[in-house]
Amino acid sequence: MPLVPTAQIVTAAAAAGSGAAAFNVVTLETAEALVGAAERAARPLILQISQNCAAFHGSLTPLAAATRAVAEASDAVLALHLDHAEDADLARRAVDLGFGSVMFDGAALPYDENVRVTAAVAAYAHERGAWIEAELGEIGGKDGAHAAGVRTDPDEAAAFVAATGVDLLAVAVGSTHARTDRTTRLDLDLIARLRDAVPVPLVLHGSSGVADDHLREAVAAGIVKVNVSTHLNGHFTRAVRSVLDADERIVDLRRYLGPGRDAMADEAARLLALIAG
Ligand SMILES: [Zn+2]
User: Fold this and answer.
1) CA angle 96-205-28, nearest 5°?
2) What integer is the mean pLDDT of 91-108?
Protein backbone atom coordinates (compact mmCIF):
# COMPACT_ATOMS: atom_id res chain seq x y z
CA MET A 1 0.00 0.00 0.00
CA PRO A 2 1.10 3.62 -0.41
CA LEU A 3 3.17 5.25 2.33
CA VAL A 4 1.07 7.02 4.97
CA PRO A 5 1.91 10.40 6.50
CA THR A 6 4.10 10.18 9.59
CA ALA A 7 1.42 12.30 11.25
CA GLN A 8 -1.06 9.44 10.92
CA ILE A 9 1.15 6.94 12.75
CA VAL A 10 2.27 9.34 15.48
CA THR A 11 -1.18 10.80 16.12
CA ALA A 12 -2.75 7.35 16.45
CA ALA A 13 0.01 6.21 18.82
CA ALA A 14 -0.29 9.34 20.98
CA ALA A 15 -4.07 8.92 21.18
CA ALA A 16 -3.65 5.27 22.21
CA GLY A 17 -0.93 6.04 24.75
CA SER A 18 1.49 3.77 22.92
CA GLY A 19 4.76 4.41 21.12
CA ALA A 20 5.43 4.99 17.43
CA ALA A 21 8.53 3.05 16.42
CA ALA A 22 11.02 4.64 14.01
CA PHE A 23 13.78 2.31 12.80
CA ASN A 24 16.67 3.28 10.51
CA VAL A 25 17.11 2.00 6.98
CA VAL A 26 20.78 1.77 5.97
CA THR A 27 20.77 -0.49 2.93
CA LEU A 28 18.15 -2.24 0.79
CA GLU A 29 18.44 -5.37 2.96
CA THR A 30 17.62 -3.38 6.09
CA ALA A 31 14.55 -1.87 4.39
CA GLU A 32 13.43 -5.42 3.59
CA ALA A 33 14.09 -6.54 7.18
CA LEU A 34 12.15 -3.66 8.73
CA VAL A 35 9.18 -3.86 6.37
CA GLY A 36 9.04 -7.61 7.00
CA ALA A 37 9.09 -6.92 10.73
CA ALA A 38 6.17 -4.49 10.45
CA GLU A 39 4.18 -7.12 8.55
CA ARG A 40 4.94 -9.79 11.12
CA ALA A 41 4.27 -7.58 14.14
CA ALA A 42 1.17 -6.09 12.45
CA ARG A 43 2.12 -2.65 13.77
CA PRO A 44 2.72 0.63 11.92
CA LEU A 45 6.37 1.62 11.50
CA ILE A 46 8.25 4.78 10.53
CA LEU A 47 11.17 3.96 8.23
CA GLN A 48 13.87 6.58 8.59
CA ILE A 49 16.96 7.45 6.59
CA SER A 50 19.56 9.75 8.12
CA GLN A 51 21.61 12.46 6.46
CA ASN A 52 24.71 10.41 7.36
CA CYS A 53 23.25 7.42 5.54
CA ALA A 54 22.39 9.53 2.48
CA ALA A 55 25.99 10.75 2.49
CA PHE A 56 27.24 7.14 2.65
CA HIS A 57 25.26 6.36 -0.51
CA GLY A 58 26.28 9.64 -2.15
CA SER A 59 22.65 10.79 -2.39
CA LEU A 60 19.32 10.43 -0.61
CA THR A 61 17.41 9.57 -3.78
CA PRO A 62 18.32 5.91 -4.54
CA LEU A 63 17.82 4.51 -1.03
CA ALA A 64 14.63 6.56 -0.60
CA ALA A 65 13.29 5.16 -3.87
CA ALA A 66 14.23 1.60 -2.90
CA THR A 67 12.70 1.96 0.56
CA ARG A 68 9.50 3.36 -0.91
CA ALA A 69 9.32 0.48 -3.41
CA VAL A 70 9.75 -2.14 -0.67
CA ALA A 71 7.16 -0.36 1.51
CA GLU A 72 4.60 0.02 -1.26
CA ALA A 73 4.81 -3.68 -2.07
CA SER A 74 3.78 -4.45 1.52
CA ASP A 75 0.42 -4.37 3.30
CA ALA A 76 2.03 -2.85 6.41
CA VAL A 77 1.29 0.73 7.50
CA LEU A 78 4.56 2.55 6.85
CA ALA A 79 5.83 6.13 6.74
CA LEU A 80 9.12 7.59 5.53
CA HIS A 81 11.13 10.06 7.65
CA LEU A 82 14.45 11.89 7.17
CA ASP A 83 16.52 11.49 10.34
CA HIS A 84 19.04 14.04 11.64
CA ALA A 85 19.38 16.45 8.73
CA GLU A 86 21.70 19.31 9.60
CA ASP A 87 21.43 20.45 5.98
CA ALA A 88 18.20 22.41 5.50
CA ASP A 89 18.39 21.90 1.73
CA LEU A 90 18.44 18.12 2.22
CA ALA A 91 15.38 18.42 4.47
CA ARG A 92 13.57 20.33 1.71
CA ARG A 93 14.64 17.75 -0.87
CA ALA A 94 13.24 14.94 1.29
CA VAL A 95 9.90 16.78 1.45
CA ASP A 96 10.03 17.09 -2.35
CA LEU A 97 10.68 13.33 -2.56
CA GLY A 98 7.46 12.69 -0.65
CA PHE A 99 8.83 11.93 2.82
CA GLY A 100 6.06 12.16 5.42
CA SER A 101 8.34 14.00 7.81
CA VAL A 102 11.85 15.35 8.19
CA MET A 103 14.04 16.04 11.18
CA PHE A 104 15.94 19.28 10.96
CA ASP A 105 18.66 19.05 13.59
CA GLY A 106 19.81 22.55 14.43
CA ALA A 107 20.78 21.62 17.98
CA ALA A 108 24.40 22.61 17.35
CA LEU A 109 23.38 26.07 16.10
CA PRO A 110 23.04 29.15 18.32
CA TYR A 111 19.46 29.26 19.65
CA ASP A 112 18.21 32.16 17.49
CA GLU A 113 19.70 30.63 14.35
CA ASN A 114 18.17 27.24 15.23
CA VAL A 115 14.75 28.90 15.60
CA ARG A 116 15.08 30.83 12.33
CA VAL A 117 16.17 27.89 10.14
CA THR A 118 13.83 25.38 11.82
CA ALA A 119 10.84 27.69 11.29
CA ALA A 120 11.74 28.09 7.60
CA VAL A 121 12.01 24.31 7.08
CA ALA A 122 8.76 23.83 9.02
CA ALA A 123 6.92 26.27 6.75
CA TYR A 124 8.28 24.50 3.67
CA ALA A 125 7.22 21.08 5.00
CA HIS A 126 3.78 22.22 6.10
CA GLU A 127 2.99 23.76 2.70
CA ARG A 128 3.58 20.29 1.26
CA GLY A 129 1.75 18.26 3.88
CA ALA A 130 4.81 16.95 5.73
CA TRP A 131 5.71 17.10 9.42
CA ILE A 132 8.92 18.38 10.90
CA GLU A 133 10.85 17.13 13.92
CA ALA A 134 13.41 19.27 15.70
CA GLU A 135 15.76 18.76 18.61
CA LEU A 136 16.37 20.93 21.62
CA GLY A 137 19.05 20.19 24.17
CA GLU A 138 21.64 18.35 22.16
CA ILE A 139 21.50 14.55 22.60
CA GLY A 140 25.04 13.33 23.02
CA GLY A 141 26.97 10.41 21.68
CA LYS A 142 27.32 11.11 17.97
CA ASP A 143 30.89 12.31 18.19
CA GLY A 144 31.68 11.71 21.80
CA ALA A 145 31.80 15.45 22.47
CA HIS A 146 28.58 15.62 24.40
CA ALA A 147 28.00 14.34 27.88
CA ALA A 148 24.92 12.32 28.77
CA GLY A 149 24.08 14.96 31.37
CA VAL A 150 22.38 17.35 28.92
CA ARG A 151 18.69 17.95 29.66
CA THR A 152 15.93 19.79 27.80
CA ASP A 153 14.26 22.50 29.86
CA PRO A 154 10.42 22.24 29.68
CA ASP A 155 9.80 26.01 29.46
CA GLU A 156 12.46 26.48 26.78
CA ALA A 157 11.01 23.51 24.88
CA ALA A 158 7.50 25.01 24.91
CA ALA A 159 8.86 28.37 23.72
CA PHE A 160 10.89 26.68 20.97
CA VAL A 161 7.86 24.78 19.66
CA ALA A 162 5.77 27.96 19.68
CA ALA A 163 8.49 29.92 17.86
CA THR A 164 9.17 27.31 15.16
CA GLY A 165 5.88 25.48 14.57
CA VAL A 166 7.51 22.04 14.71
CA ASP A 167 5.28 18.96 14.97
CA LEU A 168 7.60 16.65 16.92
CA LEU A 169 10.30 17.46 19.46
CA ALA A 170 13.37 15.33 20.21
CA VAL A 171 14.33 15.87 23.83
CA ALA A 172 17.44 15.25 25.90
CA VAL A 173 16.32 13.16 28.88
CA GLY A 174 19.40 11.04 29.61
CA SER A 175 19.90 8.98 26.45
CA THR A 176 22.96 9.08 24.20
CA HIS A 177 23.30 7.98 20.59
CA ALA A 178 24.94 4.80 19.32
CA ARG A 179 25.00 2.88 22.60
CA THR A 180 25.80 -0.82 22.23
CA ASP A 181 24.67 -1.74 25.75
CA ARG A 182 21.17 -1.19 27.14
CA THR A 183 21.91 0.32 30.54
CA THR A 184 20.82 3.96 29.99
CA ARG A 185 18.73 5.43 32.82
CA LEU A 186 16.24 8.00 31.56
CA ASP A 187 14.85 10.90 33.57
CA LEU A 188 11.21 9.73 33.61
CA ASP A 189 10.17 12.63 35.77
CA LEU A 190 11.52 15.11 33.22
CA ILE A 191 9.75 13.23 30.40
CA ALA A 192 6.45 13.67 32.26
CA ARG A 193 7.13 17.39 32.83
CA LEU A 194 8.03 17.85 29.15
CA ARG A 195 4.86 16.05 28.09
CA ASP A 196 2.80 18.44 30.21
CA ALA A 197 4.65 21.56 29.00
CA VAL A 198 5.09 20.80 25.29
CA PRO A 199 2.06 20.66 22.98
CA VAL A 200 3.59 18.23 20.42
CA PRO A 201 4.61 14.54 20.67
CA LEU A 202 8.05 13.89 22.18
CA VAL A 203 10.77 11.88 20.45
CA LEU A 204 13.38 9.70 22.15
CA HIS A 205 16.73 9.41 20.36
CA GLY A 206 19.40 7.03 21.59
CA SER A 207 16.78 4.39 22.40
CA SER A 208 19.26 1.63 21.48
CA GLY A 209 20.80 2.11 24.92
CA VAL A 210 17.50 1.64 26.76
CA ALA A 211 16.33 -1.76 28.05
CA ASP A 212 12.88 -3.14 27.15
CA ASP A 213 11.10 -2.40 30.43
CA HIS A 214 12.59 1.07 30.66
CA LEU A 215 11.46 1.86 27.09
CA ARG A 216 7.92 1.00 28.09
CA GLU A 217 8.26 3.26 31.13
CA ALA A 218 9.47 6.09 28.88
CA VAL A 219 6.42 5.68 26.63
CA ALA A 220 4.13 5.59 29.66
CA ALA A 221 5.77 8.81 30.92
CA GLY A 222 5.11 10.61 27.64
CA ILE A 223 7.54 9.64 24.87
CA VAL A 224 5.72 8.89 21.59
CA LYS A 225 8.24 8.44 18.74
CA VAL A 226 10.99 5.98 19.64
CA ASN A 227 14.07 5.98 17.37
CA VAL A 228 16.17 2.80 17.23
CA SER A 229 19.14 2.24 14.92
CA THR A 230 22.33 0.96 16.57
CA HIS A 231 20.61 -1.85 18.48
CA LEU A 232 19.10 -3.32 15.29
CA ASN A 233 22.34 -2.87 13.34
CA GLY A 234 24.03 -4.91 16.06
CA HIS A 235 21.69 -7.85 15.45
CA PHE A 236 22.34 -7.66 11.68
CA THR A 237 26.11 -7.42 12.10
CA ARG A 238 26.47 -10.20 14.68
CA ALA A 239 24.60 -12.59 12.39
CA VAL A 240 26.87 -11.66 9.46
CA ARG A 241 29.95 -12.08 11.62
CA SER A 242 28.95 -15.53 12.80
CA VAL A 243 28.31 -16.74 9.24
CA LEU A 244 31.64 -15.37 8.01
CA ASP A 245 33.55 -16.69 11.04
CA ALA A 246 32.13 -20.17 10.40
CA ASP A 247 33.28 -20.38 6.77
CA GLU A 248 36.06 -18.23 5.42
CA ARG A 249 35.45 -19.48 1.85
CA ILE A 250 32.15 -17.59 1.48
CA VAL A 251 32.21 -14.98 -1.27
CA ASP A 252 28.54 -14.72 -2.25
CA LEU A 253 27.13 -11.65 -0.46
CA ARG A 254 23.70 -13.23 -0.18
CA ARG A 255 25.07 -16.02 2.02
CA TYR A 256 25.68 -13.54 4.86
CA LEU A 257 23.37 -10.62 4.04
CA GLY A 258 20.41 -13.03 4.18
CA PRO A 259 21.10 -14.17 7.76
CA GLY A 260 21.83 -10.54 8.75
CA ARG A 261 18.51 -9.45 7.31
CA ASP A 262 16.68 -12.29 9.08
CA ALA A 263 18.27 -11.45 12.44
CA MET A 264 17.38 -7.76 12.12
CA ALA A 265 13.80 -8.63 11.13
CA ASP A 266 13.36 -10.93 14.16
CA GLU A 267 14.54 -8.31 16.64
CA ALA A 268 12.71 -5.45 14.90
CA ALA A 269 9.42 -7.39 15.03
CA ARG A 270 9.91 -8.10 18.72
CA LEU A 271 10.83 -4.50 19.54
CA LEU A 272 8.03 -3.09 17.43
CA ALA A 273 5.44 -5.08 19.37
CA LEU A 274 7.02 -3.82 22.62
CA ILE A 275 7.08 -0.12 21.60
CA ALA A 276 3.81 0.04 19.70
CA GLY A 277 1.86 -1.86 22.36
ZN1 LIG B 1 19.12 10.75 16.87
Assistant:
1) 55
2) 95
Which one from 75, 83, 155, 262 is the annotated catalytic residue?
83
Q: 116 burial class (0-12, 13-18, 19+ CB within 10 angstroms)?
A: middle
Q: Where are the alpha helices (DSSP H) in 83-229?
A: 88-96, 111-127, 154-164, 188-197, 212-221
CATH number at residue 206: 3.20.20.70
User: What distance lies between CA 245 and its chain's CA centroid?
Assistant: 31
Between the CA of 19 and the centroid of ligand 1 the distance, in Å, is 16
Give pLDDT tens digits for 180-233: 889 889 999 999 999 999 999 999 999 999 999 999 999 999 999 999 999 999
> Cβ distance 263 to 235 under 8 Å?
yes
Q: Is 1 part of any domain?
A: no
- Residues for the chain: how many in total? 277
Ligand 1 centroid from CA 266, angstroms: 23
Q: How far is the CA of 82 from the centre of ligand 1 (A)?
A: 11
Number of domains in the chain: 1
CB 157 within 8 A of CB 169: yes
CA of 248 to the centre of ligand 1 (A): 35
Does residue 83 carry a catalytic annotation? yes
The span from the CA of 144 to the CA of 96, in Å, is 33
pLDDT of residue 91: 98
% of the chain at pLDDT higher than 90 = 86
192 falls within a domain: yes
In the structure, ligand 1 is a single-atom ion and the residues with CB under 5 Å from it are 205
Q: What are the angstrom distances between the C-alpha of 186 and each of 72, 171, 223?
A: 36, 11, 11
Distance 231 CA to ligand 1 centre (A): 13
Q: Cα(250) to centroid of ligand 1, in Å?
A: 35
